[in-house]
């Protein structure tokens, strides 16, 4: 594949110690994956294979780094030393042997071919919003609004609760509660007017 001139410019602009490291990593990728495409993403050289992210490399003031997109599935034991998976690369001698990097490239390509995607870290769900007392009382006195309120998604209820709670004056809070009850009766979200714009 043709080389991206932006990657050439990136490498040329780095400190002298980093240039041979970046050129060598680039050559290894292209030798192992002739169809790899290169470009710049997040201000650093980035390689794709089959339209899917493969790897990236970067150079900093005193070290360079290299890592695969699906890094969680390919631990090297050097995670945390620097961005990427190969640790802090300060010269060609600080890099793993080429055959090790080649195996990692092959493994990353095989995962892409198999459709394996990087695992996302599981997030704890947000807790249910605390319903302001004024709103709770209004919902208790309006069955229709309460039924629709219960059918809203947690994020929709949270948005209403936060909007009411952030009011500084009781009058403003009361106006917002009244609007919430009216819109809830109709099953409308807080910003329903802007949903289909």
SSE arrangement:
Layout: H1 5-12, H2 18-32, E1 37-41, E2 44-49, E3 52-59, E4 64-68, H3 98-113, H4 133-140, H5 143-151, H6 154-165, H7 170-185
Antiparallel strand pairs: 1-2, 2-3, 3-4
Walk me through the structure:
This protein has 197 residues and is α+β, with helices and mostly antiparallel strands. The chain is 43% helix and 12% strand. The protein has 7 helices and 4 strands; from the N terminus they run ααββββααααα. It has a 4-stranded antiparallel beta sheet with strand order 1-2-3-4. A hairpin with a 2-residue loop joins β1 and β2.
Task: Give a short summary of the structure.
The protein is α+β, with helices and mostly antiparallel strands and about 200 residues long.
Biggest beta sheet summary: 4 strands, antiparallel
Shape by Cα distribution: elongated
How much is the average pLDDT? 90
What fraction of residues sit in β-strands? Answer: 5-15%
The total of beta strands comes to: 4
Radius of gyration: 27 Å
Task: Briefly note the structural class of the backbone.
Answer: alpha+beta
Strand order of the largest sheet: 1-2-3-4
**Residue windows where pLDDT falls under 50 for at least 5 positions:** none
User: Count of helical segments?
Assistant: 7
């Amino acid at each position: 594949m043709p080389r991206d001139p932006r990657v050439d410019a990136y490498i040329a602009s780095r400190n002298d110690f980093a240039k041979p490291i970046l050129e060598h990593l680039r050559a290894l990728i292209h030798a192992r994956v002739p169809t790899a495409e290169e470009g710049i993403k997040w201000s650093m050289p980035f390689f794709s294979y089959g339209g899917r992210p493969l790897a990236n490399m970067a150079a900093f003031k005193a070290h360079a780094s290299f890592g695969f997109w699906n890094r969680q599935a390919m631990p090297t034991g050097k995670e945390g030393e620097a961005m990427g998976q190969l640790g802090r690369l300060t010269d060609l001698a600080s890099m793993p042997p080429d055959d090790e990097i080649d195996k990692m490239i092959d493994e990353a390509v095989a995962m892409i071919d198999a459709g394996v995607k990087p695992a996302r870290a599981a997030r704890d769900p947000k807790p249910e919003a605390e319903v302001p007392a004024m709103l709770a009382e209004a919902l208790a006195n309006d069955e229709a609004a309460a039924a629709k309120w219960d059918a809203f998604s947690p994020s929709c209820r949270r948005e209403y609760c936060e909007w009411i709670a952030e009011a500084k004056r009781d009058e403003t809070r009361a106006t917002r509660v009244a609007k919430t009850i009216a819109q809830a009766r109709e099953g409308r979200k807080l910003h329903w007017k802007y949903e289909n714009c």
